[in-house]
Design goal:
227 residues, Aminopeptidase, single chain, alpha+beta, 22% strand, 7 helices, binds coenzyme A
Amino acid sequence: MVVREANPEEQVAMAKIAAAAFFDDELFGDLIHPYRHQYPDDTHLYWLKRLRKGWNDPSNHFLVSTLPTSDGANEKVVAWAQWVRKGAAAGKSAQASDLEQLPELPENRAANPEFEGCLEGSYRSFAHEWSGPRAECWDIAWLATAPSHQGEGHGKALMQWGMSRGVEEGVALSVIAALGKDGFYNKLGYTVPSGRACDGEDNPLSGRVVGGHFWWKEDHLRPAESL
Ligand SMILES: CC(C)(COP(=O)(O)OP(=O)(O)OC[C@H]1O[C@@H](n2cnc3c(N)ncnc32)[C@H](O)[C@@H]1OP(=O)(O)O)[C@@H](O)C(=O)NCCC(=O)NCCS
């Protein structure tokens, strides 16, 4: 496998991997895409929209894990990650004009329009998590491995990309774990819990999902004498 930065022409392949990986997730499946069984080919539009919006923001780092095709002549993307550098070193956000130039995507018929933007609506309820000593941080915002390639080490390899940066820079590492994925991150050293993405009043996720736990990896930040 090769882990490298993603190219813009790989966005559709990445969106389709996320759509398949999160198909039956409580948030991206049941809540946001209740009509996904009727329109299974539409769900990747949600991810494509997210990828296009975030692509030019220098705080975002899109990585892919690839394998050679069966004839060995090419490579195929089988997993991807979006790492976000939060804090002073994050870089300037994309200009609105960059986003306006994006071509229109077709309607996502698998989505419930009421909840399509619920994640964005929930950010204000947990943005405070990245404050104080945790303001400087590498956050793994998205991670998805194609279902047919799960268990082959792609997720771990993509995690190592950002974890090594967090250790080098001496900053915290964070994740909001999807339901059932806490164990994956715990195994990688994300063992310090804090809140949940669905906590807080006026949070559109409140009472609608049960996962979304925050986990932190901070053992590399402890003074040497306390290790
Ligand atoms: C979570 C996910 C990215 C893991 O990717 P993957 O490529 O299958 O993971 P890896 O093969 O690198 O597994 C690394 C280790 O984690 C373990 N692991 C994988 N999923 C796990 C889980 N849900 N709970 C506990 N451990 C898990 C593996 O057994 C492996 O252990 P090992 O190092 O002892 O062999 C993948 O299952 C996925 O895409 N899921 C759907 C989308 C999703 O929920 N993404 C995470 C959002 S927060």
